[in-house]
Structure formats: C-alpha cells, structure tokens
Design a protein that fits this description.
Layout lengths: L1 H13 L2 E6 L4 E4 L12 E7 L4 E2 L6 E3 L2 E12 L4 E5 L1 E8 L4 E2 L2 E2 L4 E8 L9 E4 L1
Antiparallel strand pairs: 1-2, 1-12, 2-7, 3-6, 3-12, 4-5, 6-7, 8-11, 9-10
Length: 132
C-alpha cells in the first residue's frame, strides 16, 4: 500500500504536464521527460480547463473547472526534460479500387481498409496532459 501511495504522490508532482510546443496537429511536446519518469508508449490525455468555474446551482459550491477534451496520444520520444506525444486516434477508411482487368477480363472491385491518423483538437501551448 505504501508503494502505491508514493506512486500517486509522484504522479501528482509530474502531472498535469504542459504542452510546450505544437509540432503538428498529430504531435506535441510536453515539459516532462526522463527525469520525471515518463515512459515510452505511456498513454496520455490532452485537455484544457474551462475559463469559468462551475458552481452547483443548488448549493453554490464550487465544482471546479471542466476538462475540455482535446485528444489522446502516446509517448513516442523522450529526452531528459521533454517528451514527444503522438495522437493515437485513428479513423478506419475503406478504399474501393478501380475495376481490375486481368487478361482483358474485369475481375471485380477490390476494397481495402487503412488507418487514417487523427490529430489533436486545436492543440495549443499551455494545454494540459495527464496519464490515462
């Protein structure tokens, strides 16, 4: 139990990380790396906090800020103090080839599927990142 408590405390010091540069719509760099125990292939969620604090309409109690989802990804490169995250969201697309001709005879229209990598939603410097 003590080990898992220590792990949670370490994670709280490491996360949330922040986006320090947007490489492309599918790749970002964060301000955490080897010295923060970031791991290759570690999955993360990128988000931003809402501008307004949300309050319970009945009690007026603060419920905090909404986390606005921007995408998920995985660590693909780690440096001492930075890491690169690549989106891990894909859309499966089906492509239908044009009709194939074999020895002058049409033999159908083969189809194949491929994965199309989807980018993060409007990634910006300062967006937050946490493990999932």
């Amino acid at each position: 139990m003590e080990g898992s408590t220590r792990s949670i405390k370490l994670e709280q010091k490491i996360f949330p990380a922040k986006v320090v540069t947007v490489i492309s719509d599918t790749r970002i760099a964060i301000n955490r790396g080897l010295e923060h125990k970031i791991r290759l292939n570690q999955r993360v969620l990128m988000y931003r906090l809402s501008n307004e604090e949300i309050k319970d309409p009945d009690t007026g109690e603060s419920l905090g800020y909404l986390e606005i989802y921007k995408g998920t990804g995985k660590v693909i490169s780690i440096q001492e103090k930075m890491s690169i995250i690549e989106s891990d969201r894909y859309e499966i697309k089906t492509v239908k080839d044009t009709q194939t001709i074999f020895q002058g005879i049409p033999i159908g229209q083969p189809t194949y599927d491929y994965k199309d990598l989807l980018g993060f939603e409007d990634p910006e410097i300062g967006d937050l990142v946490k493990p999932i």
